[in-house]
What we know:
By secondary structure, the protein is α+β, with helices and mostly antiparallel strands. It contains 15 helices and 16 strands. The protein has helices spanning about 1-25, 95, 100-120, 120-160, 185-195, 230-235, 250, 260-270, 315-320, 345-360, 375-415, 420-425, 430-465, 480-510, 510-515; strands at about 50, 55, 165, 185, 200-210, 215, 220, 225-230, 240-245, 255-260, 280, 285-290, 310, 330, 335-340, 370-375. Strand 6 and strand 7 form a beta hairpin. Helix 11 runs parallel beside helix 14 (about 480-510). The longest helix is centred in the C-terminal third of the chain and has 43 residues, at about 375-415. The radius of gyration is 42 Å and the shape is elongated. The protein starts with a helix and ends in a 5-residue tail after the last helix.
Amino acid sequence: MQASRRFRFVERIRRTRAAIAKVLYESFAEYIWYSPIYDGEGCPPEAVIEVHSEVNVSKAAANERDCLPGPLFSATKFLPDAYLTPGQPGMTFSSRLRPTSVMAVRDLIYDVLRTLWSHKLRAFLTMFGIAWGIVSIVLMVAAGEGLRKGQEDQARNLGKDVMIVFHGRTSLQAGGSHAGRVVHWEDPDVAVVQAESPDCEYAIPELEQDTVRTHSNFNNAAFTVTGSYPQFGYIRSLDVGAGRFYDWDDMREARRVAFLGSDAAKQLFPGRNPVGDTIYLNDSPYTVIGVMAKKKQDSSYDGWDVNKVFVPFAAMRREFPDKPPGTNSTFDQLLVTPKSVEQHTACKREVRVALARMHRYDPNDKEACPIWDTVQEAQAFKTMTDGMKFFLGAVGIVTLILGGIGVMNVMLVAVRERTREIGVRKAIGAPAGTILRQFFIEALIIALLSGGIGLGVAFGFCALVNLLPMPDFFAGLIPSWSSGLIAAALLGAIAVGAALYPARRAASIDPIEALRYEAGG
């Protein structure tokens, strides 16, 4: 009878210790090391538990003979069974039970992921708030950048920082001449303007005719014929699709060669390669030396470039001179480009002064020399797009703040409802630093996962949208890594801060008070 009672007592002690160990492990304390050991008297192995530098050994017998259970242990750190270290004869406890940092980190991450999985809804709401904020910011910035890039490309399709100088009629009296006099640019003006305008890179003439009859051996059409210098192709962004643009040899010899716009080539040579073939301009044969690449253009001063025929200025001057009241030495407009965007104002002033001196009118008379300044238009558009970016940035900041508030609320409620769990941890000896570290890693994992998902969804959506045909003025959604990373960092910091603040408060109070906490109370 006494032996039976003693056996039942031993079993109760064994079960109690096992229950305590299970509670401690499931409460996410940090480490526990087990090592089987024999008492030397035939007793079965039991656990050795090390607490910092103190080692308590407890043994229990499976029978009632002579093995009594040792003292119950108090542990603040422990590891799962995967890290059991078998005891070896002659080894000390300290050598048998030495922990590793890899064990600590891996076990901590495992516990964090298990906790997140047990609170799936709250974790999902927090991650959704962060990801949605990132997606919203990236898409807004991408749309603004796509609009800016599209308009910039359209402006460059007209020309590269080009200023078109038209001839006009004087509105001011100057040098004894009355106002209202018609001014025409002449061939000698080109060299003078180029010489007297050090801030200008190019100054070239342009002569046009829209009454030239154009036909090939396969079709005929009515196109504008334009003559200029070889730099015209670069200045007006006439990219070569096939063949070449005319050069200075063509200019010097006034060769009958032609460079066709893409649509003009299709109409004159349907389904054929026109390079090397012949077109006729007012029955004069011209050899096609090149075809322009397809070009999108939303602005022009004399028609779309795709529907033009481009020839050397010398050939144009010889066979298609300026119409009356022009003369054989006048041309339609002067194309000028500055050496840099910063020099365009000085370049424009120098051109006005040089032309005013040549044609004896007031340099301040803008009616005599009207200039279409695409550089100034580009700067004005940039100011508008910058304002739009600031507006979208303000909207984005508001969106981030609202998303941050939502994330903060979810995290605050989630952590406050785990106050009792924090109390259990503290009651069994877990230090405040360990508790805060787990909540920090939980919030960090949520922030990293939701940030990656948000960036992936945003960039993936932009890529899908960009597969669709876009209007000429819109270059598609152009996402920016900087905006996405800033949004992810800000929302992630809010999530981490919202998790650590209530966790720190709960970890600083007495365990008894934490255990008394009721969610919603």
